Amino acid sequence: MSELSVNHLLGIKYINNKDIDLIFETADHFKEVINRPIKKVPSLRDITIANIFFENSTRTKLSFELAQKRLSADVISFSAAQSSVKKGETLIDTVNNILSMKVDMVVMRHSNPGAAYFLSKNVKASIVNAGDGAHEHPTQALLDSYSIREKLGNVAGKKVVIVGDILHSRVALSNIYALQMQGAEVKVCGPNTLIPRYIESLGVTVEPNLRKALEWCDVANMLRVQNERMDVNFFPSTREYAQQYGVDKNLLDSLNKEIVIMHPGPINRGVEITSDVADSQQSVILNQVENGVAIRMAVIYLLASKIQ
Amino acid sequence: MNQKVLLTSKEVNIILHRLACQLIEKHLDFSDTILIGIQPRGTFLAERLKDLLEKEYQVPNIALGYLDITFFRDDFRRTNKPLEANKTQINFLVENKKVIFIDDVLYTGRSIRSALTAIQSFGRPSGIELLTLIDRRFSRDLPIQPDYRGRQVDAINGEKVKVCWKEQDGEDGVFLINNNQ
Fold first, then answer.
1. Residue B14 located in a structural domain
2. Residue A218 CB contacts under 8 Å (≥ 6 apart), including other chains
3. What pLDDT digit, counting tens, does each position of A107-117 carry?
């Protein structure tokens, strides 16, 4: 087994295909571990990890914490609402204060794109990006690809459409990088106002028609409309969005093949997908959550093995 | 590199038969006993013993599992070599069973220490024994000794004991390799 080529996981664009393979192979082993009667290994018992979340998160934070605890790391968690950030402290000061308590790794979510990259250049710790603004969310993209690999056997050669709010989505960007790196073909689908202007320079095509996009794809990754990042109206009404870009059971059943439905969560039931789609056999949404723990264990384990 | 034969294929075969007989003497019909091959190299020995017990000595339905100890090792971040994980496959509970760990070479004892921790994830065995083909004397870091041993070997630290299996290496045999010469 080789090592990761990086000391931090800042985004998919900073890693390579071999890193992804290594993370997946390691995650396979951890997936077996988390299905044991006792789901814990002692590998990281001398590692301390700080989870710093400047933005709200439920799933990602829980998933990271669980992954760290399953690896026996010591974990401290911190969210901006209760912190000195509100009192005017800078990001570097906040993190350096935490590091002086002998922390080896920082998992951070921040609303500014590039925050994780900035931190990796300025503090001495291994940094994991748990989402930086509309930039990247690498562990989500890894677990999405891992779930595709688990369901369809392979990512290479598969056709994946990412539907919804591409403009505000870090999940979309990381997924595009990860899927293309592994040889999948990617389309995006959504209202014109929510598609970034230069998206085609990433090598993806835009398909404005949802039905056509679904007829083409093997996997549809349905994204949430990120209302909290919208300062103007990008579409007339939620109802109209749901009619044009929401997937319901009738639409799914009328396709000429069975496609896999993914969603990074949280779901707005009735908007991007209806309940009967989210809970159908074709949906792998809960598998994604389970795989998230295994993938994050693999990422943390592999990064920790490089800490001197 | 200098290589010396410690056991030939024929000698390995005789030892396997002896170990199988010793296991039967103690465990009779194996109804409460589980064989666990320690990954990666203990699995060949474990499979061979299961085969012998079932085919030559007519002990049917022997439970065999594989245990990977990578995530339980005590040298994580202390070696330059990345640790390589293997598959763990234990499809039964070990609660109240007699477990026999099977590995090819017993050297410092640290792998077995890790295995003792790792097996607890699958329940609380009523007892654990250790079977190794080669026992390297005088090289233990921990107070761990085998209950069944194929052959005791005196080897100094610069030397390596290599166990070959015909399934993977083409022929059975045990060799002493001296890297210093």
1. yes
2. A152, A158, A159, A160, A259, A260
3. 999 989 999 99
**CB within 8 Å: A26 and B121:** no
With respect to residue B84, please indicate whether it lies within any of the assigned structural domains.
yes
What is the span of the domain harbouring residue B153? Answer: 9-157
- What the block records as the tokens of A128 is 């994991």
Q: How far apart are CA A227 and CA A282, in angstroms?
A: 27
- Please check whether residue A43 touches B, CB under 8 A: yes
Query: Which residues in chain A have Cβ-Cβ distances shorter than 8 Å to B84?
Result: 1
Chain A neighbors of B121, CB-CB under 8 A: 33, 36-41
Per-block average pLDDT, block size 10, for chain A (308 residues)?
89 96 95 90 93 89 96 90 70 86 93 93 93 95 97 96 94 96 96 92 95 96 86 85 93 92 92 94 95 97 91
Helix (H) or strand (E) holding B163: strand B159-164
- Cβ contact (<8 Å) for A36 and B122? yes
| CA-to-CA separations, A161 to A132, A256, A306, B133, in angstroms, rounded | 23, 16, 35, 55
Helix axes A138-152, A59-70, angle to 10 degrees: 80
- Name the architecture of domain A138-288: 3-Layer(aba) Sandwich (3.40)
CATH number of A12-137+290-304: 3.40.50.1370
Q: Say if the Cβ atoms of B88 and A2 lie within 8 Å.
A: no
Q: What was the ipTM of the complex prediction?
A: 0.76
Say if the Cβ atoms of B82 and A1 lie within 8 Å: yes
Chain CA centroid to CA A150, Å: 17
pLDDT, tens digit (0-9, with 9 covering 90-100), for A159-217: 999 999 999 999 999 999 999 999 999 999 999 999 999 999 999 999 999 999 999 99
